[in-house]
Amino acid sequence: MFPHLKGVLMNTDIIVNEKVPTGLLTSDFDYELPEELIAQTPAERRDSSRLMVLDRSKDAPEHHVFSEIIDFLRPEDILVVNSSRVIPARLLGVTEKTGSPMELLLLKSLAPGRWETLVRPGKRAREGAVLLFGDGLLRVTVEEVKDDGNRVVSFDYDRSRFKTDYELLDRIGELPLPPYIRKKQKDLSRYQTVYAKEEGSAAAPTAGLHFTPELLDRIREKGVGYAEVTLHIGLGTFRPVKEKKIADHLMHTEHFHIDGDAAAEINRRRAAGGRVVAVGTTSCRVLESVADENGVVHATEGDTGIFIYPGYRFRAVDALITNFHLPQSTLLMLVSALAGRERILKAYETAVKERYRFFSFGDAMLIL
């Protein structure tokens, strides 16, 4: 049992907010962003994105191309990536009774054939309502309306034809994109990382979108370690923090796992003086959820709701590769915890001035 998880039982229970005394307000994490800097399409080549390097030992950030990230990694370091794969989680259908249009967004798998979802319009999705998708291939029953408005639904389909929910979703679903991406995409594979494996996310771990197989090969050839964890991203990532004080915000939970081999290699590298470089805030949250007070990472499976904001003491993560995040978001609060709020906001001001591209398809930052 790890003290910082406050009574969590491995493999079954939810890791809740770690309360750190703070007087910070949500408004303390605001900044001005011109709408035209919100990237609507990915860079022509994944690793041709721009890279801001924020070295905490220096006064000013440096400006590079993402492919040059290899120059900032040491042979003894280890990259930790989130290998979750985005599923075709957006379903368009109708109500069984009236044929009225409905949209279903799958947020989290609770069990085979049972999901937590976001349904629009909600007034047509009361308990007991039946919805049809894929011209009747999928029949969905609303089982529960949760306090936050999400719906728990059950799936009914021909299991002799589709062996799993994911096989069916590949047939009838669409890949969901964040609401701020309004332009139709030519190649939706660019919203998957090149190492995506395990299906389950409603959004991409976007920091990893900048890597190509060739760049990863070059990084490995340098001697840098590589480990995969999995955290299935829900749409809570995009939900605004509504509370005035950030310490009052209840973090969403997401399912994750890290196996013994990955944990052992991370611990070995760090004990030998290497840095743990988390690729993305999701990898960071996994590592901080499973590290004990001494920074030792343990193989674990469970649900994490860890909320990292300034005042938090990092245990496992030494450096972070990340994108530029939404104002007043939990992700901006996390990177501020690592680099300092004032330094981050100043770096974001510089990024706006230098015309960096923001959010999912945007440019990257390396915090050292």
Describe this structure in words.
This protein has 368 residues and is an alpha/beta fold. It has 2 domains: 3-86 and 187-367, QueA-like (3-Layer(aba) Sandwich), CATH 3.40.1780.10; 90-172, Beta Barrel (Thrombin, subunit H), CATH 2.40.10. 17% of the residues lie in helices and 26% in strands. Helix 5 crosses helix 6 (341-353). The longest helix has 13 residues, at 341-353. The relative contact order is 0.22.
Element layout with pairings:
Elements: E1 14-15, E2 50-54, E3 62-65, E4 78-82, E5 84-86, E6 90-95, E7 101-111, E8 114-120, E9 130-133, E10 138-145, E11 151-156, H1 165-172, E12 198-201, H2 213-221, E13 225-231, E14 254-258, H3 260-271, E15 276-279, H4 281-290, E16 300-304, E17 319-323, H5 330-339, H6 341-353, E18 364-367
Parallel strand pairs: 1-16, 2-18, 4-13, 4-15, 5-12, 15-17
Antiparallel strand pairs: 2-3, 6-7, 6-9, 7-8, 8-11, 9-10, 10-11, 13-14, 14-16, 17-18
